[in-house]
Amino acid sequence: MAERAERPPVARVSGEVSTTARAPQAPAVVTTPLPPQAWFQRNEQLLIGFVTVVAFVVVWQLVANARIWSKLFLPGPSDIVAAFGELVAEGELAQDLAVSGQEFVIGYTLAALIGIVLGLVLGWYRRARYALDPFITFFYATPRIVLLPLIIIWVGIGIESKIWIVFLGAFFAVLINTMAGVRSLDPSLLTLARSFGASQLEVFRTIALPGSVPFILTGLRLATGHALIGIVVGEIVGAPHGIGRMMWIAGQTFQSSRMFVGLFFLAITGVILTYALQKLERHFDAWRPQR
To answer: Kindly report the CA angle at 65 between 61 and 71, in degrees rounded to 5?
Structure first.
């Protein structure tokens, strides 16, 4: 008598008979949330930096009080605060800040806009980059300060020449970093997008532009320092107002405390802008390991 073949298990669903076995369900994955960070861990970088700065200022004041060096060579923080009060009382500091701020905002904004657009175009179109690369290399290698006399001849001694100096100082940092961002894209990712029928504009908009954002922000961060240097350099020659002019006059009249006031205004501006751009850079570059 022939053996009967095994019949598949019978499952009843809503009163009906099914001859198929139910597939086993995968076990549910239970994830354990990370423990919440303490307040100190969340603000560790800020706190350590703040404590270091406070300690440096205290040591600086103690050294200045000891008068190891003359006040001309090393004014203390209290001397700088007193010089700041004198400048405020004289009434010209606000106008100097307004003029320098206008030069910085206009020159830096133009450098960012033109540098990003031109950098994306030159990084994406190879032949355009080949055509303009000699000029970019030439002007980047040329110290911008030597162009100041020519710029004054071309546009005059007013605020326009200072804006041009700020623009030239910041422009090349943005341009070169943006070009590097486009050129560093993964070729296999571009090939994959094109194989799925994406047009040149779609590939540029969805891959090239987002992939270049961290490089663009790095360029903007580097351009901040160059733009602030351009303010001081541009205002040394024939500026009626400005932080650079104020620092130049203070240096010529041996008022070191006033020079430090202008220095701190420029430094604080650079720190704030750099910190803001670093936060944006980390947001768009969150996949990289932080060290």
So the answer is: 95
DSSP 59-122: HHHHHHHHTSS-TTT---HHHHHHHHHHHHHHT-HHHHHHHHHHHHHHHHHHHHHHHHHHHHHH
Task: List the CATH code of the domain at 90-284.
Answer: 1.10.3720.10
pLDDT in tens, 152-167: 888 888 888 889 999 9
Give the pLDDT confidence of 115-172 residue by residue, as tens digits.
Answer: 999 998 898 888 988 999 899 988 888 887 888 888 888 888 888 888 999 999 999 9
HEC secondary structure over 196-226: CCCCHHHHHHHHHHHHHHHHHHHHHHHHHHH
C-alpha distances in Å from residue 147, one per residue of 106, 183, 249, 253: 19, 30, 23, 27
CA–CA distances in Å: residue 10 to residues 1, 23, 44, 163, 276? 25, 13, 63, 84, 66
DSSP letter assigned to residue 22: P
Question: CB-based contacts of 35: which residues, under 8 Å, 6+ apart?
Answer: none
Are the CB atoms for 86 and 144 separated by under 8 Å?
A: no
Q: Which of 151, 152, 145, 162 is nearest to 234 (CA)?
A: 162
Distance (Å, whole) CA 111 – CA 169: 8
138 Cβ neighbours under 8 A, 6+ residues apart: none
Neighbours of 258 (CB within 10 A): 23
